Amino acid sequence: MSNRGEHTELGDFLRARRAEVTPEEVGLPTSGHPRRVTGLRREEVAQLASISVDYYTRIEQGRLAGASASALAAIARALRLSLDETRYLHQLAHKSEAPRRRKRVQQQVHPQTQRLLDNLTDTPALVLGRHMSVLAWNCLAAALYTDFGTLPLRDRNLLRLTFLDPQIRDLYTDWESAARNCVAFARMDVAHSPADPELQALVGELSVLDEDFRQWWALHDVAYKTFGTKQFHHAVAGDLTLDWQILTCPHDPDQSIMVMTAPPGSPSQQALRFLISWATESGDARHSVQP
Q1: Are 122 and 273 in contact (CB under 8 A)?
Q2: Top-tier CATH class for 4-97
Q3: 180, 207, 280, 281: least CB-packed within 10 angstroms?
């Protein structure tokens, strides 16, 4: 069945979300007897959303093509979904209506984007592609994370590095928080391309090699954070607290630029300047574009 991947993901997502909501939280009466399911039953979600049980069941089981926007909005309210989760729900539910995408070609970074990165001499910056692949970087990003140019092409992926590279694990002051944010960010890709073989291969590999990833991916948490703060402990520069933001590239919506900055005059800005000096002297922080 051509849409089996979408239906499985939609059902798993809804089951995971209703398992997190208790009847008490949404004002439903409880009988006091032990419940066979964790969280809300399908019947209770349907009641809260003011739709029939059969209608909700068909949505969750993927047997309804094109659920109405009003019904999805009501389900989102019933399950107390965040804005990102609501967006994800709508994308999954309407995936079967979307036109078939053309075969994907290898992503290329525009020369102007690379020049932008190179001109950010005091700011770490990366270009991220589909599924958090690292397509390009500047010298300071290589000095902060790793020399991406020495890695095999398939290993230039921020999600894979976060879980499988000990150096990157040690780089984050709060690795678990950073890793879970990566998982939630990467899961948003499922709504766009649930049957993407590259995404399936990456998820399969990480699920086999890392128990934390396997457990967190199964939670179906989604979040599309485009800004925040990261704390690092760099082996050379010491502790850094950097603000980050993600900007979509104008020539390719599947590419984004992640830029990290430090407040003026802060210890983190001084640490970045030291890192610049160290990288320049060592000559190890080269930039490159994915071939």
Answers
A1: yes
A2: mainly alpha
A3: 281
Counts for the chain of helices (H) and strands (E), in that order: 13, 6
d(CA 162, CA 177): 11
Query: Are the C-beta atoms of 146 and 120 separated by less than 8 Å?
Result: no
- Domain at 111-289: CATH architecture: 2-Layer Sandwich (3.30)
H-helix or E-strand spanning residue 203: helix 197-209
Residue-wise pLDDT tens digits, 166-197: 999 999 999 999 999 999 999 988 887 777 88
Delimit the domains of the chain by residue range: 4-97, 111-289
Q: Tokens in use for 225? A: 């954070």
Tokens 């984050």 found at: 172
Instruction: Answer whether 285's CB lies under 8 Å from 255's CB.
Output: no
What backbone torsions phi and psi does residue 140 show, to the nearest 5 degrees?
-70, -35
C-alpha closest to that of 133 among 69, 174, 59, 185: 185
**Alpha-carbon dihedral sign for residues 209, 176, 179, 25:** positive
Cα–Cα dist 262/160, whole Å: 26
Q: Which of 71, 61, 49, 66 is CA-nearest to residue 14? A: 61
Phi-psi region of 66 (alpha: psi -120 to 50; beta: other; left: phi over 0): left
pLDDT digits (tens, 9 = 90+) for 258-268: 999 999 999 99
Contact 225, 206 (CB under 8 A): no
